[in-house]
Amino acid sequence: MELLEAIILAVLAASTPLLLAASGELLVERAGVLNLGVEGMMIVGAACGFAGAWATGSTFIGALCGILAGVALSLVFALMTLGLAVNQVATGLALTILGIGVSGLIGAGFVGERIATAPRLYIPGLTTLPFVGKILFGEDAFVYVSLALIIGMSWFLYRTRAGLVLRAIGDNHVSAHALGYPVLKIRMFAVMFGGGCAGLAGAYLPLAYTPFFVPGMTAGRGWIALALVVFASWLPGRLVIGAYLFGAVSILQLHAQGWGVGVPSQLMSALPYLATVVVLVLISRTRSGGSTAPAALGTVFVPDR
Amino acid sequence: MLDSGSGHARSGTVLLQTIGLTKRYGSFLANDAIDIAIRPQEIHALLGENGAGKSTLVKTIYGLIQPSEGEMLWQGEKMVLAGPHDARARGIGMVFQHFSLFDNLTVAENVALGLDGKESFKAMSARLEQVSQQYGLPLDPKREVWQLSVGERQRIEIVRVLMQNPKFLILDEPTAVLTPQEADQLFVVLERLKSEGRAILYISHKLDEVKRLCDTATVLRGGKKISTCLPREETAASLARMMVGTEIKQVKAAANRQTTVPRLVVNDLSLAPDEPHGVHLKNISLELKGGEILGIAGVAGNGQDEFFAALSGERLAKDPGTIVIDGHAAGHLSITARRKLGAAFVPEERLGHGTAPRMRLSENALLTGHAASGMVHNGFINTAATLATVDRATASFDVRKAKRDPEAASLSGGNLQKFIVGREILRNPIVLVVSQPTWGVDAGAAAVIRQALLDLAAAGAAILVTSQDLDELADIADRIAVMFHGHLSEPLMTADADRETLGLLMGGSALTPKDVPDAVGA
């Protein structure tokens, strides 16, 4: 029982950065923009988040720094792909490479430093409940924020007019423009939101997951987040399931090694990607019609004026 | 429907006026000092060839494009539009030629996006049902657009505009994609809107329609206004002359064309679609002899694309015998193998399917000619031969271009289409399958292409033409068959194929009910 509780707690901790980053990317892709720079925005968010927290001693300020760093990097992406109509795939890849470099630069002085990890919720009577207490009522703020974010995003996408316009732009930007919607402006806000989420997801790692900064500590989580969006077929609800599933796989892989299960760890690490490929194949074979991916995803839009 | 005072009472006053409206793109004048006046209760036609500046003008009136010079008056007052919402706020609505719809959203969501969102989604949905009933334009608000027929999609556009209770509607080639019966239903709606005191600007190049429906017509050519006239007092020929600037040559078929042996035979071809929105081809059979032109009519999206793919070898049939080219079973053969049997193919989409847009014409000639035209020796390209093909096509089909061997994308639609058709005809095919040969092509080029097809048939080739333009098929085809929901009707002799019969077939009405799960329109 205690082992199970420990595993669940570990899974939640491992899944939260995936969920945060993937939520942001989901919204970006729903607006028709493919930002492959999630990994880069995350790692910069991690470095700046750690720097902020180290300087002020506040997790909150650290998280804020992470978000701002992600937004700043996403603005570079927005300038290139929306302002200058550069290819989104190439720009996204460049953004990741840039992010890894910048984070190394910022974080170089912080390697070896330690900070206090993010405080966890404590409600007397509830948090001390056996088994469920720590899982439900003893998490750090990031976990609750990530879940609130996904609920808020579902509500936004399907219940508000702005969400409808955003989905419309992702489906057909030419029509949206013809009806008079500011395609590029809305896409820019979506990209900034995605950057903020990625930055927060990155900041989570040194602020709550491990109390120190290591260059390259995102370790491919940005790529998993991208795969997750596809895995979830662009639906927020499925994103939660996917994030926890992928988080669970990465934790179980550690335990499996501890138990001496004879599966190579590399194969386990590759599972999220394999699962994404399987889901993509299933989607394309079983869907009855309509496209699941936003139809304008990754295409450049230049309004005629 | 309209506020009192603006409609019937002042029907003599001008609702919208443009004065010297000019739009410049670099040194190119898309609109050159255009004056046009539209009154309430008037259906005003805007005529012109592709590239005459019609779309630019209406986009300016709808606030999508800012004019370079000139001004617009709305009910006598100067109007400057920051965007389409400004136009909508004044009572200007637009139905786009290429529908501004979102395939993966529902009908109600699509309508909501065209309104300015001042009412709740629920209230909007209720009003949508009310308006669609009121005008006899039935719609199911909960269906997603990709599931709907073209006619239904247009209904969404029209209902969306009507829900704004506009004083002025712009319709951009609304009948281009409709069956004759669907077009008639549309005209009833338009007449009703006119009787309610609204003004309509009606873009079309179908002159018969304009003569029948419109009170006034303004003709544009090369960005300039040529004249404003009363279409009922003009003839179709005189209107065409104003649009084109010269007489259009009538195409002429050779008087004594001989049909020979069957060149293209399709035996009971059935093919499941390979994409979610595709059409299932069902039991298609036909026989086409040398020297004969068979026309395939039908509303877009009824299986024409799938049929073209099956004939050209872009998709293979399971049974080789389903497609026979010049006596050889070819259903299992690749495109190249079919070309070697003497077949040639001209797809509908010029850029991206018919040609690679960023490649030169000579390279594009090679792409279809490599198998059978001596353009490749031992794996090396014979550049002289590819260039010679470009030169021959240029000379024979009057392809106008800036230099000898430009990129395909730099040619105008009509000239590129002449090149593509020429490229295939110069290979001396015995079977030519051509889809929408003159879609979006100016009248001069269209006449050249149609004549070329007739000449090729006279030389003994079998030609299969898919087209949505019934007049075109009537001009060149010997027999016409209609495609509907993946079925192909029995071909009719062109002389027997009047518009009404074809229209019924295009709407699926003449088929037995069990073949028609959900008939379009009607």
Automatic annotation (TrEMBL), chain A:
Pfam families: BPD_transp_2 (PF02653). It is found in: Cell membrane. The keyword Membrane applies. It is a multi-pass membrane protein. It comes from the Bacteria. GO terms for molecular function: transmembrane transporter activity. One of its GO terms (cellular component) is plasma membrane. Keywords: Cell membrane, Membrane, Transmembrane, Transmembrane helix. This is ABC transporter permease. It comes from Tardiphaga robiniae.
